[in-house]
Write a structure and sequence with these properties.
InterPro entries: AB_hydrolase_fold (IPR029058), PGAP1-ab_dom-like (IPR012908)
Order of helices and strands: EHHHHHHHHEHEEHHHEHEEEEEEHHEE
Shape: elongated
Strand order of the largest sheet: 11-1-8-7-6-5-4-3-12-2-13
GO molecular function, one term: hydrolase activity, acting on ester bonds
Pfam families: PGAP1
Protein name: GPI inositol-deacylase PGAP1-like alpha/beta domain-containing protein
Number of helices: 15
Strand content: 15-25%
Distance between the termini: 46 Å
Low-confidence stretches: 1-7, 449-454, 524-538
């Protein structure tokens, strides 16, 4: 069911779906044929609309063909001079325009239906991804060959976006810079990664992990530096919540809402009075009808606190192409230790959901802790995870916004496979509410807050968005993107949704919260904490 907009929803998200389909070629051809037929009919009605408009113009031309004829010029049959006869040109012209409007509306509806069919069934996703890869590779090669020109070009586009956004919002807003540069982000970033990682232009075309190789090199320096400043002793302990922050979940959408609640509560953006602080994750145990357990781990993103394992430097380590370097990232080992403390068994099914750095942690655990845990499904929101070596047996549902930048930091598009689904959202202004009108006869036309296009399924509103452009990396934008993909009725989304629900199927038995802190040495007495966890440098 579509989401009803409120008067405070200023932005909306329209989604496209890539991967996770697995249709037979014949089935795709059938859907493509239907979409083409709808589009052809739309073109036919558009031509009819043009013909009706042309007829209206011809009538107007006939009416003014005899400038000296008063009766013809008036266009009013009731004002006919004796002996003269005229057609009701004004009424005929209005009828022609009415027919033109109706035909054009029908054309738009048919074309909208074709577009929805294409988006819901990912009919041309393979061609789109191929074109995207070629464009990215060209930008990457150009960036490596002429880095100065590439930097200047992106800077110019960003500056243009900043000025345009200033005009639109009436105030300076850096968020518009990302909006204008998003088509170039992956290519330029992968090119920069190739330069830092020392990958020759010829060899880089066959790979997509240039950024990850560069991150590994940077982490060799940033990791030790971080240890000096922040310390490398990690304390992980269970903490109690005074409020119900992460609640029972039975779907990806509900889990994303819990992720938002935990992320914003620990950053102080909402007030649930839970007592939870930064560096906190949630682990839930669900009991199935056969008595076995399944688990859901909720992992928010970077909080940037000085002693948090979810600091900025950990992102670089998590993005490394080297497995050992990824395993040393404080946020990854903190979640792994919390999972151990929670008692998750090796053979018990686990689902992970994370935003931003939390999503990279989830992908890292699925990639590098595959022998310790049975991670069956990973959901990421705004996380650059395209190059993480996640096993084929693990299902991945990635939700990204095209202009958020963070998801593009890996310099590559996500893999397109049956078990890896990407929902990509595009942000646009939501239509303004129409006011209620009271007519002279006492009748009333109610106001409305429609979603543009054919149906409410064209786009989903971003709850609580502001009237100025925001950074689309906020979780609420990913929630809207997933909502729209669900509303489209995409079979690929339905398949992934069903798998996620199967993993966590059962009755919620407990929700436990774990907090991590980085120190130079053990500062918490063993009697005052649940577990002291120290590991190798990182």
């Amino acid at each position: 069911m579509g989401v009803v907009m409120s008067e405070h929803d200023y932005w909306q998200v329209e989604s496209s779906v890539y991967g996770g389909v697995g249709y037979a070629p014949a089935t795709l051809e059938e859907y493509a044929a239907i979409a083409k037929a709808l589009d052809d009919e739309a073109a036919g009605f558009a031509a009819i609309a043009t013909a009706w408009e042309s007829a209206a113009l011809q009538l107007q031309s006939h009416r003014h063909s005899a400038p000296m004829c008063v009766t013809l010029q008036s266009g009013d049959p009731s004002a006919v001079v004796p002996g003269h006869v005229t057609a009701p040109y004004a009424a005929l012209g209005n009828r022609c325009y009415d027919h033109a409007t109706a035909c054009q509306r029908l054309s738009d509806d048919l074309r909208g239906a074709a577009d929805l069919l294409i988006r819901a069934h990912s009919l041309y996703s393979q061609a789109e991804m191929t074109a995207r890869r070629m464009f990215t590779e060209l930008l990457q090669a150009g960036t490596q060959a002429k880095p100065g020109y590439a930097a200047a070009g992106v800077a110019a586009v960003a500056a243009g976006g900043f000025l345009a956004g200033w005009t639109i919002d009436g105030k300076p807003n850096p968020a518009w810079m990302s909006t204008f540069t998003y088509p170039f982000q992956e290519g330029v970033l992968s090119g920069a990664g190739g330069i830092i990682g020392g990958v020759p232009i010829g060899k880089s075309i066959a790979h997509t992990d240039e950024v990850n190789k560069a991150a590994g090199k940077i982490a060799n320096f940033s990791g030790p530096a971080k240890d000096v400043v922040q310390g490398n002793h990690l304390d992980v302990r269970e903490v109690q919540a005074n409020a119900d922050v992460v609640r029972a979940s039975g779907s990806v959408a509900e889990s994303m809402e819990n992720l938002r609640r935990l992320a914003e509560e620990r950053l102080g953006k909402i007030e649930l009075n839970s007592g939870l602080e930064y560096g906190t994750i949630a682990i839930q145990r669900y009991e199935r009808s056969d008595g076995t357990n399944s688990w859901l781990v909720t992992i928010p993103g970077t909080d940037g606190q000085p002693d948090s394992p979810f600091g900025w430097a950990q992102n670089v380590e998590l993005m490394s192409a080297d497995q050992e370097r990824r395993r040393k990232a404080d946020s990854a080992r903190m979640v792994a230790e919390a999972m151990r403390q929670a008692g998750i068994g090796k053979d018990e099914p686990v689902a992970l959901i994370g935003h931003s750095q939390g999503g990279i942690v989830a992908a890292t655990l699925a990639s590098d802790w595959a022998e310790e845990y049975t991670i069956e499904h990973v959901v990421t929101a705004g996380s650059p995870v395209a190059n993480h070596p996640i096993p084929q047996r693990t299902w991945v549902t990635s939700v990204e916004i095209d202009d958020e930048l963070v998801a593009a930091l890996d310099g590559a598009a996500n893999p397109v496979t049956d078990n890896w689904l990407t929902v990509q959202g595009h942000v646009s202004p939501a239509p303004a509410a129409t006011p209620s009108t009271v007519h002279s006869d006492g009748s009333c036309t109610p106001g409305a807050t429609p979603i543009t296009g054919l149906t409410p399924y064209d786009a989903a509103p971003v709850a609580g968005s502001t009237n100025g452009r925001e950074l689309s990396h906020w979780i609420k934008y990913h929630q809207a993107a997933y909502q729209n993909a669900t509303d489209l009725g995409s079979p690929a989304v339905q398949r992934h949704e069903a798998h996620f629900q199967e993993v966590i199927n059962g009755e919620l038995k407990e929700t436990r919260y774990y907090q991590g802190r980085m120190t130079q040495s053990a500062t918490i007495a063993p009697s005052e904490r649940t577990t002291e966890f120290s590991t190798f440098g990182g």
